[in-house]
Specification:
It is a single chain. By secondary structure, the chain is of the alpha/beta class. It has 31 helices and 33 strands. A seven-stranded mixed sheet has the order 8-7-3-1-11-12-13, covered by helices on one side. β17, α20 and β18 form a beta-alpha-beta unit. α9 crosses α17. The N and C termini lie far apart (57 Å).
């Protein structure tokens, strides 16, 4: 059966699902379509022509290569298609972005036919996705005296590819659509359980919010054809939890503008808003697509005569509406005045200066941030090739420098890695900076999108300036179903060829490793001055500064080795007092959020860097804090580590990288060994005193400071989604932190989950030791609720086996994963037993495994979002509460939350994760967790 016949059969199947033909990325299929065009009598010729013009993906896909070559044949007169003139062939080439299309345009522009060369040059002047091979051809032709090459480069030197684009409209009319009340997670826009379809944009678009919401949005578009739909989080923040490019893609698909008439289901420029603005990592993703993020501030705290907020019976501030944005409200965005107005444009509602910085306006004008990044590089190259001064066509980067003011830790890292800034100028928070990226991570449910982005921007190889890059398999580790079997090997093959170390070997020579991406990145980050970009919101390392990013920003970092962003403000977190012996460090993490809110009233962490002075904890334990900061709505976090602690963490990282090498995971480019060499060099610098562990300057300036009193933490704490809070803005947030005594030992727990990125070896040892203790006291252990345990890495399991802990877990397990026969279907029912699951994200991801609908789940993970770990049943709202490992284990055994006395008895003699503030250097950390 020919590929075209198979494709047509697939089309029939998709039609039954209400879907259009899938966009074509396969060169062999495109070749069959091209052959059909040569036969005027072919029964499917008209259909094939439509596929060729409108349904073939651009960039470096093999389909784009075939399409570009056929268009070249038409331009040269070697092929004739009545419907595709030479002019139209050039137009189609202009929409193919780069890679083979640019190669063809260069062939034509540097060819012998003067008229064709002129036309090709005009198209090339609009292109920005040129790589070294392309620019080298232009430079060689320029040096040989080619006038066309000189003309193209002169256009590039003036950045006409940008300056000749139409400006952003002075006024943008929008009509509102409230997507939900309270914080809206990106799971609402792109549910984790639909992760398998993200690379099929039309199919994935059907999971946006709900079918009813989609119908309502379509109705608004019909009623207001001249306006753009603005998606709103009423009384909350839009896009919390993860960057989720697929979420932005979905919003753009339903409300945005089509990027090209010849590329299906790729839209851009969505308008999203929230009462409390947009989550920082999601806002970055909005900028990637040239969209607009709006901080509405339409609900404000009601103030009393004393000027202080009036509180309700629950102690929460009463909100009053400043102006209405109910669904169907027409508003006006004035891009020149940077202000949101009412429909008539008379009443000023809110300042939008932050939405229309010069850089963001450039993204909007260019249709996204990629074009700006590549455009800047292209203009610089052209000026250098022509030997003329660079007069940048782009807005100058904002450079903020305060004489005599010291640097925070993040300011130091950004200054050390900055590119293209004023030489010698010290930059402080608020500066726009282009920085070198040291470590890049891609995960498996966004990886296919990242590979599509790389193809679209015509990238073929990892930037040589990147020290380490890893493609994980953790988000689809739980169930090796047909979707995973179809997507994962293809993704691993693409990324391995691109230059990344991959969790699964495309050649099948080493064991498939499903280790959690953040844990691997935490190990391969071997420099505390590093910048890390990862395709997951929990990209928060204990070394360097790490940013969770959308699939496109990850692609850009892989292709260019760079990222662009403002230097964020920092909040300094320090500690005082002593940890009670029965407390676990996870409770310190919860207490930090609670005490911050008590000290400042509002979440001062949101959108900022948390600089945490936690220097006596090794990388694994410190990661518990930094990982959590994603849920604090922070942009990132930095650990301030003492010299000796950092050296020990780096030695552990070296050992783990060596294990990866020993398992056969080293890439042919030698990446893993180079990381070990970097770690050795950094250890040498610290030991010699040449470059001690990263620390802020004593006179650094912070947005705020938080001092966590360890003495005030006297009982375990639970992060509660408070799903029934009358104030919807308080539901499904991480701001409600409660002691276990609040629940009076009456909160029923239907399932316990110890796992994902928030646990380390010590947590799994705690599970084993609790089972030993309870067995010794009662003779046996009976679970009143299921307990699911998923270690984050295989290394941890190997060490637990050597130390005897895994045997204890096996004794009580009713299920243990088997890599030789992985689960092919997700579990839907649970027994009251212990489940030992494959390393990976498991329940925390929510795309494969889930708790039973309506369950109350107590977990060590990080997600409270509605529907993530557990969905609602007809009778009960599903809840996902978060706590320390010992609380989760004991609650699963009891089937309810424990009393404080029950908890103390259960953990007596168990080595919990201990922490002493770095101001008083401890003899040791009293912890098993190394």
């Amino acid at each position: 059966m020919s590929q075209y016949t198979q494709y047509r059969e697939e089309i029939a199947t998709r039609k039954e699902q209400g879907l259009s033909p899938k966009p074509i990325d396969d060169g062999a299929l495109t070749a069959e379509i091209v052959a059909t065009l040569d036969d005027p009598a072919h029964q499917h010729r008209d259909e094939a022509l439509n596929f060729f013009i409108y349904n073939t993906l651009p960039g470096t896909t093999s389909a784009a290569g075939v399409k570009a070559q056929f268009l070249k044949e038409i331009v040269l007169g070697r092929k004739t298609v009545a419907e595709i003139s030479v002019a139209f062939a050039f137009e189609l080439l202009s929409h193919m972005k780069g890679g083979p299309s640019v190669a063809v345009l260069l062939d034509l522009a540097l060819g012998d036919d003067a008229e064709i060369a002129r036309q090709a040059a005009e198209v090339l002047k609009t292109q920005v996705f040129l790589y070294e091979a392309d620019t080298a051809r232009l430079k060689e032709a320029l040096d040989a005296g080619n006038a066309v090459a000189k003309d193209i480069l002169e256009s590039y030197s003036d950045a006409e590819f940008f300056t000749k684009l139409p400006d952003v409209e002075d006024e943008i009319k929008v009509v509102t659509y409230i997507a939900g009340e309270g914080d809206i997670s990106t799971d609402l826009l792109s549910p984790g359980n639909q992760a398998h379809s993200r690379s099929d944009r039309e199919l994935h678009g059907k999971c946006l919010i709900s079918e009813q919401a989609q119908r309502e949005i379509e109705a608004l578009k019909l009623q207001h054809p001249d306006k753009r739909v603005m998606l709103i989080a009423e009384k909350g923040t839009m896009g919390v939890g993860s960057s989720r490019m697929s979420g932005v893609n979905n919003v753009a698909l339903w409300t945005g503008k089509q990027a090209s008439p010849y590329v299906p289901f790729v839209n851009f420029a969505p308008v999203v808003a929230g009462t409390n603005g947009i989550s920082p990592i999601f806002l970055t993703t909005v900028g990637v697509t040239g969209g607009i993020g709006v901080d509405l501030k339409n609900w404000v705290k009601k103030l009393g005569e004393d000027g202080k907020p009036i509180l309700n019976n629950d102690g929460n501030p009463i909100l009053e509406q400043k102006y209405s944005v109910e669904t169907g409200t027409v508003l006006t965005i004035n891009t020149k005045k940077k202000t949101l107005y009412d429909a008539a444009g008379d009443e000023e509602l809110v300042d939008m200066s932050a939405s229309f910085t010069p850089q963001k306006v450039e993204f909007m004008k260019a249709g996204g941030s990629y074009a700006i990044v590549f455009g800047k590089k292209l203009q610089t190259f052209a000026c250098e090739a022509l030997g003329i001064p660079l007069k940048s066509a782009f807005a100058p980067s904002k450079e903020v420098s305060h004489e005599g003011q010291g640097l925070t830790a993040v300011e130091k890292i950004f200054n050390a890695n900055a590119r293209g800034n004023t030489p010698g100028k010290v930059l402080h928070a608020g500066s726009d900076v282009r920085v070198k990226v040291n470590i890049v991570g891609s995960q498996d449910t966004t990886g296919l999108m990242t590979s599509q982005e790389l193809e679209a921007m015509a990238a073929t190889i990892l930037s040589p300036s990147v020290d380490g890059a890893y493609q994980s398999g953790c988000h689809t580790a739980s169930v090796w179903d047909l979707k995973a079997q179809a997507n994962t090997p293809r993704l691993m093959a693409f990324m391995n060829k691109f230059g990344l170390v991959t969790a699964r070997d495309p050649k099948g020579e080493y064991h498939a490793m499903t280790d959690v991406i953040h844990k691997v990145l935490n190990d391969i980050t071997v420099d505390d001055w590093a910048i890390i970009i990862g395709g997951d919101s929990h990209t928060r390392m204990s070394k360097g500064v790490a940013f969770g990013a959308d699939s496109g920003t990850v692609a850009l970092a892989l292709a260019t080795g760079e990222a662009s962003m403002p230097i964020p403000e920092s909040v300094k977190v320090t500690f005082k007092g002593d940890m009670a012996p029965h407390m676990d460090f996870r409770d310190v993490v919860h207490a930090t959020q609670a005490q911050m809110l008590a000290q400042h009233g509002d979440n001062v962490f949101q959108g900022r860097i948390i600089e945490v002075h936690i220097g006596t904890l090794l990388a694994d334990q410190a990661f518990t804090f930094t990982d959590w900061t994603a849920e604090m709505k922070a942009k990132a976090s930095i650990c301030i580590s003492e010299d000796d602690t950092l050296i020990e963490s780096l030695e552990i990282a070296k050992a783990r990288i060596q294990i990866m090498i020993d398992k056969g995971m080293e890439h042919e480019n030698g990446m893993l060994q180079r990381l070990i060499d970097i770690a050795d060099n950094r250890i040498s610098q610290i030991r010699s005193g040449e470059k001690p562990a990263l620390r802020p300057d004593d006179n650094a300036t912070y947005f705020a400071e938080v001092v966590v009193d360890l003495n005030a933490i006297d009982e375990p704490m639970i992060a509660d989604p408070d799903v029934g809070n009358v104030d919807v803005s308080k539901r499904y947030t991480h701001d409600t932190i409660r002691p276990i005594s609040y629940y009076g030992a009456e909160k029923k727990v239907d399932l316990g989950f110890v796992g994902s990125c928030m646990v380390h070896k010590g947590d799994v040892k705690i599970v084993a030791q609790m089972l030993r203790n309870l067995e010794a006291e009662y003779g046996k252990v009976e679970f009143q609720a299921p307990l699911v345990v998923a270690a984050p890495t295989y290394n941890i399991i190997d060490e637990l086996k050597e130390e005897g802990d895994w045997a204890v877990l096996q004794k009580y397990s009713g299920f243990e994963f088997d890599d030789l026969a992985p689960k092919s279907t997700a579990r839907t029912e649970y027994e009251n037993i212990l489940y030992l699951e494959r390393p990976g994200c498991n329940l925390c991801m929510g795309n494969q495994e889930k708790a039973a609908k309506g369950d109350t789940v107590l977990a060590t993970s990080t997600r409270l979002f509605k529907g993530r770990v557990v969905e609602d049943s007809a009778e009960k709202t599903g809840e996902s509460l978060l706590a320390s490992t010992p609380v989760v284990v004991l609650s699963a055994i009891l089937g309810r939350t424990p009393t404080l006395d029950e908890y103390k008895t259960a953990v007596e003699g168990i080595d919990l994760t201990k922490f002493a503030p770095p101001t008083q250097k401890p003899l040791d950390t009293l912890s098993v967790h190394f």
